[in-house]
Amino acid sequence: MTNQLEEEFIKMVKENKEDFYKVAYSYVKNEQQALDIIGEATYKGLNSLSKIRERKYMKTWFYRIIINESIASNRKNKNIVYDTNILENMTEDEIDKDEILDLYNAIDELSDKYKTVIILKYMKQMKTKEIANMLNMNINTVKVQVKRGVDKLRSIMGGKA
């Protein structure tokens, strides 16, 4: 049973590795640090598989581990450096890279609770219900945090957002 669960977990990590990496990277803005976070999260996930209540929530559960590891990594390493290469991959046509960098800077100024829901909602394009399940929160709480996070972003950016 445990071997089957471990195999299922490893398969899920491999199938979603790019999405997991993007979430970690959105927090730390450093390729090597994001890869380290995924490695540490995978290790912790494998050692904590018995805590999964339902297999269908394995991916959600692992996202939570990645987010927690990313936040912990940011607390350890306060000096965040932006990698402008991500801008090349994320932007097309006419989006101004300076505006995107300003947005990243503004997102970094948000508290962790707002940063998390903003990243999941707008960068990962997750539905509010998915975010609520992932973070083990009431759906209305997520909606309020998204709205407040957007309001704070607007304030930080001087009404540009």
UniProtKB/TrEMBL annotation:
<feature type="domain" description="RNA polymerase sigma factor 70 region 4 type 2">
    <location>
        <begin position="102"/>
        <end position="153"/>
    </location>
</feature>
<dbReference type="GO" id="GO:0003677">
    <property type="term" value="F:DNA binding"/>
</dbReference>
<dbReference type="GO" id="GO:0006352">
    <property type="term" value="P:DNA-templated transcription initiation"/>
</dbReference>
<protein>
    <recommendedName>
        <fullName>RNA polymerase subunit sigma-70</fullName>
    </recommendedName>
</protein>
<dbReference type="InterPro" id="IPR039425">
    <property type="entry name" value="RNA_pol_sigma-70-like"/>
</dbReference>
<keyword id="KW-0731">Sigma factor</keyword>
<dbReference type="InterPro" id="IPR013249">
    <property type="entry name" value="RNA_pol_sigma70_r4_t2"/>
</dbReference>
<dbReference type="Pfam" id="PF08281">
    <property type="entry name" value="Sigma70_r4_2"/>
</dbReference>
<dbReference type="InterPro" id="IPR014284">
    <property type="entry name" value="RNA_pol_sigma-70_dom"/>
</dbReference>
<dbReference type="InterPro" id="IPR007627">
    <property type="entry name" value="RNA_pol_sigma70_r2"/>
</dbReference>
<dbReference type="InterPro" id="IPR013324">
    <property type="entry name" value="RNA_pol_sigma_r3/r4-like"/>
</dbReference>
<keyword id="KW-0804">Transcription</keyword>
<dbReference type="InterPro" id="IPR036388">
    <property type="entry name" value="WH-like_DNA-bd_sf"/>
</dbReference>
<dbReference type="InterPro" id="IPR013325">
    <property type="entry name" value="RNA_pol_sigma_r2"/>
</dbReference>
<dbReference type="GO" id="GO:0016987">
    <property type="term" value="F:sigma factor activity"/>
</dbReference>
<comment type="similarity">
    <text>Belongs to the sigma-70 factor family. ECF subfamily.</text>
</comment>
<keyword id="KW-0805">Transcription regulation</keyword>
<feature type="domain" description="RNA polymerase sigma-70 region 2">
    <location>
        <begin position="12"/>
        <end position="78"/>
    </location>
</feature>
<dbReference type="Pfam" id="PF04542">
    <property type="entry name" value="Sigma70_r2"/>
</dbReference>
